[in-house]
Design goal:
With 629 residues, this protein is an alpha/beta fold. 47% of the residues lie in helices and 15% in strands. The protein has 3 domains: 13-142, no CATH class; 145-263, NAD(P)-binding Rossmann-like Domain (Rossmann fold); 278-451 and 499-510 and 553-608, Rossmann fold (3-Layer(aba) Sandwich), CATH 3.40.50.720.
Length: 629
Amino acid sequence: MIKLNLTEGYTPRWIVLLIDLAIVLAAVGMAYLLRFDFAIPQVEIEAFPVVIPTLLGVRLLSFLLARIPWGIVRYMSQRDAMRILITLMCGTLVFFGINQITRLINGLYIIPHSIIFIEFLTTTFGMIAARLIYKALWMELKNPTRGKTDVIIFGAGESGLITKRTLDRDAATRYRVLAFIDDDKAKHGRKLEGVTIYGPDKLPQLAEKAESVQVILSIQQIPAARKQEIVDFCLAHHIPVLSVPPVRNWINGELSSGQLRKIRIEELLEREPIQLDEANISSQLKGKTILVTGAAGSIGSEMVRQIARFEPKLLVLLDQAESPLYDMELELAEMPALNYEVVIGDVRSRERMLNVFRTFRPQFVYHAAAYKHVPMMELNPSEAVRTNVQGTVVTADLAVEFGVEKFVMVSTDKAVNPTNVMGASKRIAEIYTQALNNHIQGTRFVTTRFGNVLGSQGSVIPRFRQQIENGGPVTITHPEITRYFMTIPEACRLVLEAGCMGKGGEIFIFDMGSSVKIIDLARKMIQLSGLEPGRDIEIKYTGLRPGEKLYEELLSNSENTQPTHHEKIMIARVQPEIYESVNAQVNELITLFDTQNNMTIVALMKKLVPEFISNNSVFEKLDQEESIR
């Protein structure tokens, strides 16, 4: 006995073929009955021994040539239906051809043309309908409707339609499309593949109708502000939000239900794409030898990726972190047109850096190598000086010695009115390169300054995510602490733009948008995980860490700005520095490394940067001693 198992395995091809031929036979009978008003003439019946085998034979041959039985019925798609239609049309054309041949031989058509036409329509409908019915039965048995979660697709465009079809096609999915939501009023009230399109104002009502509902954000090109508005609305109504990945991330160009994922907080902090003067950047970087220090870090690695687009003659990646640098080498190996060199080296070592400059003769230097973690540097001031100050001095001096055209230093907003050793060390590096720019002719030194970048090593977001995954608590230093955030690609694009527009000596600051309260960030991340702050995940305050301050700044009190041609880039007005004085003090600071006396080192840093006032740190007593004097 033949057993058709709807839940396991696949139906044998020969069974599929027999069913298709049975559909053809039934269609032929239906065609004759309809054509002759259910009273088939005897002359036609007498022709059946020739007509029936001819029809079945042609259909059988065409099915085998087109490999129709090889299709997996349960995964019937629009493409499969089109293949069946084309195969049946080809067979129908053969029937008409056979008729012409028989007419030439004996003056008669072997099959009435009306029979051929009706059979084609009936067979087409029967074969496609049978497959769709089988697919629907299999999907219901595999994944019953009663066990599905209702979803509302936000966006009734092409991406939304693809999303619906993906959910319909994938039997493993636990989603059932309840409705579409779209901002376009012209679509409201219409139906898309049987599903009604509503306006955004109907979302709460739709959510109330279902026991559990989720929203899938399917719009590919959506303004960042609108995306945040939609997500905030859903979170306020306790509706989980999923998103469809960009088309470029679809597997083999097709979307699968497994790619639907929860909205990430990074997506909500993104801003509109930055438009660069790519012609100007290309004119400066194309065909040049470019050195990127700290090339394995968060900023340095993205700088490498973006510079690679502008076809440099040679791209030199320098870092002392072996494993991350190796990962970058593997990534660049997939860019066969890019000429690059990977160098393990320490920017603090003049001998090693001298060999790098002598060997490669870079024309552009992007200096991203630095220690960046505030609490770590507060405990290790000598290392902050050695890397952030000495590393910059070594690299900058060699840039002058070897005639580098432009030196772009990546700085931080923590260098503004610093309250910690890390910020002060970066400010000293800024001061040195500015003074050097004023002292020499040739190499132009440009500084870029911005705040926190999303996803960087040590960023608060990965830490919060890990704490949420572990069940909490989420730890925050202070309920009022705020930070500026920018995506890594956005920051690096602005570095490229500012670096190319710089004439030398400028400090470019970036429009970081509005500062974000970290407590709000934590709450939203918990909600995006489908949990409730305070109920499912506890939030704890741990107190400010050494050197940390509540609010970051982009300009010090003595600075103001002037605009540039790019709305997101400004130039800070700063007091000019005298190289001889700065050089002497910086060299003195570097020599203090050997003493390993943190108090002495930080005291000189405060002398170099008078606005450096320690906060929540053991070095506050130096400020107290200074105030007594």
